[in-house]
Amino acid sequence: MGEAPEETISANSPKLAGTVGWGPATLVAVFAGMLYGGSKEASASVSKDAEVMLKLGSTPDKREQYRLMRDAMEKRFLRITKGSIIGGVRLGLFTAAFYGLQDVLAEKRGVHDVFNVVGAGSATAATFGLILPGSLPWRLRNSAMGSVLGAAICFPLGWVHLKLIEKANEGNAVSHPIGGERKSGVGAAIDRLEGNLNK
């Protein structure tokens, strides 16, 4: 009963608390990217609004003022909409590629561990570095840098995430035994306490 939790989680086990599927993660990323892209374009259009106000002040004709104001509002709306769509698509594609690759690695290797996160982060960052605009040497350099940075950033994040999953599922084997009798939360807590005392 006093065994330490394993560093890897078997892929054949039922879905554990804390694991994220690529679908919900992608949906959240699309909305987050839309919010970021739209707010970035909205803040960038402040200087353009100042130019419109200067033109309005120098135009005495009311019809011309109305036309300038309408054109400025239409352009602002189009800029914010375009920024939202591009931001949502970019972050959504990145997240879908990351989590999809992570799921493929976990399925092929048979375990959920930190190396799945590192491999997915490195490959995704390298791919997106390769598709950035620019010359071929520039894109190859971005891809190599993205691969290294993706692995370096994803290793500690993957390790922390795995530890959180282990902590979240610490009592699941006791409180929900497969093919066995289901215990209440109090019974599971007592069994965990006994296990900790027996260590």
Automatic annotation (TrEMBL):
Membrane topology of the entry: Multi-pass membrane protein
Localization in the cell: Membrane
InterPro entries in the cross-refs: TIMMDC1
BP GO annotations: mitochondrial respiratory chain complex I assembly
Membrane spanning residue stretches: 20-38, 83-102, 114-132
Oxidoreductase is among the record's keywords: no
Organism superkingdom: Eukaryota
Keywords noted in UniProt: Membrane, Transmembrane, Transmembrane helix
GO CC, one annotated term: membrane
Presence of the UniProt keyword Membrane in the record: yes
Record family assignment: Belongs to the Tim17/Tim22/Tim23 family.
Protein's UniProt name: Complex I assembly factor TIMMDC1, mitochondrial
Organism of derivation: Cannabis sativa
Taxonomic path: Eukaryota, Viridiplantae, Streptophyta, Embryophyta, Tracheophyta
